[in-house]
Amino acid sequence: MTASHLPAEHPVVRTGKVGVLLVNLGTPDAPDAKSVKRYLGEFLSDKRVVEIPSLVWQPILRGFILTTRPKKSAHAYQQVWSDEGSPLAAITAAQARGLQARLGDAAIVRHAMRYQSPAMGKELDALLEQGCERILVAPLYPQYSAATTASALDAMADWIKGRRRLPALRTLPPYHDDPAAIAALHADLARQIGALAFAPELLLLSFHGMPERTLHRGDPYHCHCRKTARLIGERFAQTHPDLRIVTSFQSRFGRAKWLEPATDTVLVEEARNGTKRVAIAAPGFSADCLETLEELAIRGRDDFLAAGGSHFAALSCLNAGEAGIDLIESLVRRELSGWI
Ligand SMILES: C=CC1=C(C)c2cc3[nH]c(cc4nc(cc5[nH]c(cc1n2)c(C)c5CCC(=O)O)C(CCC(=O)O)=C4C)c(C)c3C=C
Ligand SMILES: [Fe+2]
Ligand SMILES: [Fe+2]
């Protein structure tokens, strides 16, 4: 008997469930030097993150960085730690709960961190145990970089290698120029700016930095950031024609040249050149984290005010708010097309 003998309306029978794994970078389990050391040791040993041969890099990492940085970073984490733990972990968990509420019985949603916990391998195992035969792995990085997106996929690949029976797998592509992402960012930033007690002259769009050589080696990250910023800027030109928009790169690490201009330098130069009122946003982060809450909202503010600025506001990421979950839902639903 061939398929043509089946009634035309014969339903497609889906055996097994659909799973979604939201992934973000990772964070220490506690804001103490020991936990931060464990986190940084794993993160900075990833060859996608530090592209220096291990023979050269590991002695520097073990002998210098991991003996000095954890204490300093732990102090920074302590300033932003919440009752629910690290902001990045708490917000990612809330995003997974928000997406689960939207998808209902259509899919099982879990979340994982590329480094530390919850580990990607464990969460993928949990989805299998829950009966998922199709899984979407969704790294929540709007802009692709080898250090973030590809590294998350490496962890997925490691998990694949250790399993006999695998589900069908899909991954979420970068969404740096997705109209839904740009519209969500513009609307949410405009809403936050409208609620400020002052009118900013400048909106600084600060992206996480990368070593400049990654750009010359073909990483699209820099181009993706620039495009996101241009598209957000085009929308603000329509709604806020007097608002000046500048793009910068934050969180410089190590001795190599990083993408420029640096956020801290721009804040100081703007203040010295007479800019008084600034709002800063981080459209490359889907969730607030140490880099936005401490580096921008605390140190950025101090730098700007000390250099002569009068008003400073750090705007929130999309996080697990209505606009954030709307965006994640639309990105995920598109990737699940044909599965749910
Ligand atoms: C959003 C994209 C990110 C890119 C690109 C990225 C590249 C990158 N980062 C480092 C070094 C560090 N990053 C740290 C924290 C951190 N980085 C991202 C995101 C990107 N990083 C996030 C979301 C966070 C916050 C984590 C949290 O717990 O809240 C840190 C640790 C903190 C510290 O000690 O300062 C380091 C170190 C490199 C070297 C790099 C590119 C090669
Ligand atoms: Fe980083
Ligand atoms: Fe930082």
TrEMBL record:
<dbReference type="InterPro" id="IPR001015">
    <property type="entry name" value="Ferrochelatase"/>
</dbReference>
<comment type="pathway">
    <text>Porphyrin-containing compound metabolism; protoheme biosynthesis; protoheme from protoporphyrin-IX: step 1/1.</text>
</comment>
<dbReference type="GO" id="GO:0004325">
    <property type="term" value="F:ferrochelatase activity"/>
</dbReference>
<keyword id="KW-0408">Iron</keyword>
<keyword id="KW-0350">Heme biosynthesis</keyword>
<dbReference type="GO" id="GO:0005737">
    <property type="term" value="C:cytoplasm"/>
</dbReference>
<dbReference type="InterPro" id="IPR033644">
    <property type="entry name" value="Ferrochelatase_C"/>
</dbReference>
<feature type="binding site">
    <location>
        <position position="291"/>
    </location>
    <ligand>
        <name>Fe(2+)</name>
    </ligand>
</feature>
<dbReference type="Pfam" id="PF00762">
    <property type="entry name" value="Ferrochelatase"/>
</dbReference>
<dbReference type="GO" id="GO:0006783">
    <property type="term" value="P:heme biosynthetic process"/>
</dbReference>
<feature type="binding site">
    <location>
        <position position="208"/>
    </location>
    <ligand>
        <name>Fe(2+)</name>
    </ligand>
</feature>
<protein>
    <recommendedName>
        <fullName>Ferrochelatase</fullName>
        <ecNumber>4.98.1.1</ecNumber>
    </recommendedName>
</protein>
<comment type="function">
    <text>Catalyzes the ferrous insertion into protoporphyrin IX.</text>
</comment>
<keyword id="KW-0963">Cytoplasm</keyword>
<keyword id="KW-0479">Metal-binding</keyword>
<dbReference type="InterPro" id="IPR033659">
    <property type="entry name" value="Ferrochelatase_N"/>
</dbReference>
<keyword id="KW-0627">Porphyrin biosynthesis</keyword>
<keyword id="KW-0456">Lyase</keyword>
<dbReference type="InterPro" id="IPR019772">
    <property type="entry name" value="Ferrochelatase_AS"/>
</dbReference>
<dbReference type="GO" id="GO:0046872">
    <property type="term" value="F:metal ion binding"/>
</dbReference>
<comment type="similarity">
    <text>Belongs to the ferrochelatase family.</text>
</comment>
